[in-house]
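Ligand-bound model needed. phenylalanine.
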Amino acid sequence: MSQKQRVNFGSRLGVLAAAAGSAIGLGNIWRFPYELGQNGGFAFLIVYLLCALMIGWPLMLSEFTLGRMGQSNVAGSFRSITHVKHWQWLGVMGVGCALLIMGFYSVVCGWTLEYVYQAVTDGFSGKTPTDLSQAFTAFSSDTTRPILWMLLFLLVNCSIVLAGVQKGIERSAKMLMPFLFLILIVLCVRSVTLPGGMEGLKFLFAPDFSKITPSVVLSAMGQAFFSLSLGMGCMVTYGSYISKQANLERTALEVTGLDTLMAILCAITIFPAVFAMGIDPSQGPELVFITLPTVFNQMPGGYLWAILFFLLLTIAALTSTISLLEVITAYISEELRWPRKLTAILVSLLIALLGVVCSLSMGVWGEYRIFGLNFFDLFDKFTSYILMPLGGIGISLFMGWHVDRKRLELELSNEGTLKLKYIKVYVFLLKYVTPLAILLVFINQIVGLF
Ligand code: PHE
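Prediction:
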C-alpha cells in the first residue's frame, strides 16, 4: 500500500474543512450545551478547555502524524510504522468504536431530518411545551418514522463517501463548512440580542465550581474526545490523506480551535434564547429537540430561525458521519482488498442495522437494558467514556514512547523543512500529561463505582 501514491486531500483548505467537519458535529451543537447546562456552566467550560488543550491538541497532532507517516488506514498505519504487530489492535478497536458511534449517532441524524421537515412545514407553531415534549417522545419511540429518516440520512452519507476522498469528502466539506459557520453566526447574533438574553450569558459565564466532581471531569474529557473525533482513528485516517507538504502542527491547532470555538458559539446561541423565553436550561439530550422548538415558537420570526437551526444541525452531523464511515470503509477495503464502493455500501447496511437497534431501544425495546442502560445510551457511554479514552492512552503511548523521537520530528517538520514551534510542549504533553490525565480520570471513576 505504502509503495503506491495514496490519494490526498487537494488543498490546505480542503484538509481543514474535512477535519473540522469531522470534529464539528452533534457533539458541539446537541451534546456540549446540555452537558454544560447540567454540569455547572462556566466551571465545566474551564475543565473542558483544559481537556481540549492538554489532551485534545496533542492527541490530534499525534493522530495526524501517525496517519501521514503510516500512509494507510488506522490499523495499517500502526503496522507500517512498527514491527510490533500488536499495536494494530488499537486501530481495530478504533474501527469497532466508529461502528458503535455510528449506531447511535445515525439515529440522532435521523431526528435532525425530521426536525428540518417539521420546521419547514411549520409543525411547531401553536404547540405548548408539553405538546412539544410529548411529540418528541412519541416520535423518538416510534417504530418506523425515525428509522426511515435515519435510512435516508445514511443514504446521503454513503453516496458522498462513494464519490471518493477528493470528489466526495473534501468537496462536500468545502461546500458545507462555510455555510455552517455562517448559519451559526447569524443565529448567535439573533439569540444574544433577544430581550432577556443576557441572563443566559450570565448563567453561562457564572462559575459554579462546587459542581466539579470527578464524574464531571470524566464527562468533560469524554466530551472532548467525542467532539474532537479522537481516540478511534478518524484523524489517523484523515491524516493519511494529508499531503507531505502540509503543516500538521498548525492544522491540529486550527482544528482543535475551530471545534472549541464552535462549541462555545453554540452554547452562546442556545442559552440566551432559552433564558429569554424563561425556560429551565439544565435539560438533558432533549434540550435541542424540545426546548429549542419552544423557544422558536415564542421568538419573532421563529419559523425561519427554526429551519436554519435544524439545517445547521443536519449539516454538522453529516460532515461527521462521513468521517466515521470513511474510517471503517478505508480499513475494510484496504485490509481485505474489497472494492471501496462495495465496502462503503455494505458498511452502511451494517450501520443501518445497528441504528435500527438503537432507535428501537428508545421505544419498544426500551426494557432491554445492560448496566441499566438501553442500547442507545450504552453505545454512547461505552464509546466516549471507555473506548475513546482507551484509544487515546494507546495512541499517546505509541507516539510518545514507542516511535523514535527523531522520526517523529522528521515527519512533523516535513523532513526538516518546517520550523517546529511547539515541539517541546507537544512531546511533554504527549509523553506525560495526556496518558496520565486520562488514566487518573479513569481510575477516579472506577474507584468511585465501589
Ligand atoms: N466529533 C463529532 C461530533 O462532535 C463526532 C465524531 C466522533 C465524529 C468520532 C467522528 C469520530 O459530533
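The mean pLDDT is 91.
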